[in-house]
Design a protein that fits this description.
Elements (H helix, E strand, L loop, with lengths): L4 H13 L7 E9 L2 E7 L9 H4 L3 H4 L16 H12 L7 E8 L11 H10 L3 E5 L5 E5 H10 L15
Parallel strand pairs: 3-4
Antiparallel strand pairs: 1-2, 1-3, 4-5
Length: 169
């Protein structure tokens, strides 16, 4: 059976995630505009720095920091951030594009690919239209970015229904 376009792009995001250098999760992102992939990113240490595998440990695990908290103490840049950064490095506009996110743990079990608050703010400011996220059931959830904006205008971001760390292990 031929996959839908959304599933097709999520399958590509899954392959991108395999490059991840995080000991906790493999996370991949691709940005598509006008049915073309314009940027990719995976979770990993900044360019030319040592990642957790090279160092032999996860700093956040070592400090017993739960998922979804204290990102400033992580060696990695999130997949969403890297996709946005890679588009900027190439001089490519993201306006009107869609981001596809795939997440699995190091055992290969699918997890809910929910962006953190920092990434959500970057996605809003980048001008993307939708974020399509893989989930633990092997399906996906589509978020319209304008719904996040409207929700945050009415309530605070901490009231956000879908939160990384709350929705994923």
């Amino acid at each position: 059976m031929r996959p839908s376009k959304d599933q097709y792009y999520l399958n590509i995001a899954r392959e991108v995630a395999q490059r991840s250098t995080c000991m906790r999760m493999k996370f991949g992102a691709i940005i598509v505009r006008d049915d073309q992939i314009i940027a990719t990113g995976y979770v990993g240490a900044p360019r030319n720095t040592k990642d957790c595998f090279e160092r032999g440990n996860c700093l956040r695990d070592q400090l017993k920091i739960p998922h979804g908290q204290r990102y400033e103490l992580c060696r990695s840049v999130h997949a969403e951030q890297n996709a946005i950064i890679n588009a900027a490095r190439a001089g490519v506009s993201l306006l009107g594009g869609d981001m596809f996110l795939y997440c699995e743990d190091q055992k290969g079990e699918m997890k809910n690919a929910i962006p953190c608050f920092i990434c959500k703010k970057m996605i809003i400011n980048a001008g993307l239209n939708r974020v399509i996220c893989s989930n633990e059931e092997g399906k996906y959830k589509i978020f319209n970015i304008q719904d996040w904006v409207k929700d945050w205008q009415e309530r605070d971001i901490l009231d956000d229904q879908h939160q990384y760390g709350k929705d994923s292990a």
